Amino acid sequence: MDARIQNARIAERIAQQPVAAPRPNAPAVGPQGVGFEALLQDRLKVSGHAQTRLQSREIQLGKEEWERVLNGVERAAQKGARESLVMLDDVALVVSIRNRTVITAVDKQHLKDNVFTNIDSAVIV
Asked: Is the pTM of this model over 0.70?
């Protein structure tokens, strides 16, 4: 599977972030001069299923939200988690901690009466 972010909306938002010298379609640049998309693709993948859920449920996460998810994934990994439910504001993500892959995404509207299985931990970020 390609390690790059598969969600077109995330890629668009990243490309629209302001940079010091405006360039068309330039990715956001972090404090060390590395693009956020490059940082994210090395640390977290989005499965095809999760990409479909993000798009169909119109879930849009910005740079800060993805950083919070990454921090939660790293904390879960430190505790030995394998599959975690990451709660972020009104969004729930099921993440394979071992593979650093978002498996699925659920918004607030679809959370009610939902049962999450095959997880061994939950992280609230």
From this structure: no
Rounded to the nearest angstrom, the gap between the alpha carbon of residue 65 and the centroid of all alpha carbons in its chain is 8
Alpha carbon distance 23, 16 (integer Å): 10
E strand or H helix at 90:
none
Three-state SS for 4-36 is CCCCHHHHHHHHHCCCCCCCCCCCCECCCCCEH
Nearest to 25 by CA among 50, 17, 10: 17
Domain ranges of the chain: 8-124
CA dist., res. 9 & res. 37, Å (int): 12
In this structure, the chain runs to a length of 125
- pLDDT digits over 101-122, tens only? 999 999 988 888 788 999 999 9
